[in-house]
Design goal:
By secondary structure, the chain is an alpha+beta fold. It has 2 domains: 4-80 and 196-213, Glutaredoxin, CATH 3.40.30; 88-194, Glutathione S-transferase Yfyf (Class Pi), Chain A, domain 2 (Up-down Bundle), CATH 1.20.1050.10. Helices cover 56% and strands 8% of the residues. It is built from 8 helices and 4 strands; from the N terminus they run E-H-E-H-E-E-H-H-H-H-H-H. It has a 4-stranded mixed sheet with strand order 2-1-3-4, with helices on one face.
Length: 225
Amino acid sequence: MTDIVLYMSPGSCAKVTSIVLEELELSFKTEVVRFMKGEHKSPAFKQKNPTGKVPALIYGDQALSENVAIISFLNQVHGKLLPKAQNAMEQAKQLADLCFCSSTLHPLVTRIRMPSFFAGEDNARTVQDIAINAMDEFFGLIDKRLDEKQWWYGDEWSAMDAYLYWCFWRVEGAGYHVDKFPNYCDHARRMEQRPAVQRAIARDNEASKILESEGLLFKPKNISR
């Protein structure tokens, strides 16, 4: 059996990788990275991921970062994470879907959740407002696609649903008006009924408890309107 270790931090997008590992029913260990302590900048962690970010997945004796790459790799090795592509174009479109989450939604999530990180306290509100307006458009597109669909690709769950769920969950927790997108809300609630997602949530909660006990849990401010 291949040894698998997921380096993560609670609330981070490492939750996406945690969900897909749980969906694959793979045995893996989680290691909490203490960002408030600067562990992500340590030489030891940067050997695993030079960018100092999570997720960082150790699979056997190899390290891999970035959710899109991790999902693509795990799908090639284990299958079950994406619909079987019939040709190169279908495969590319699936990759484009995942990149929509990582390159379009994800940056907006962080600007809604932690605007002061990008603009300082004086300009945080402006950055957050711009991100919210942009997110409204994209959440609207997602909500429309999920109309009368159980999952992103129809009846078949995929890793795309895991990434969409994290984006939703992260901004919902910040006070973003998710109720404007009822189909997306229903999708999130369906995700939370999946045993694999519940196990990933439990891992995330346990990591939060560890950091809170050490006084190292980062708690960003919610949207104030």
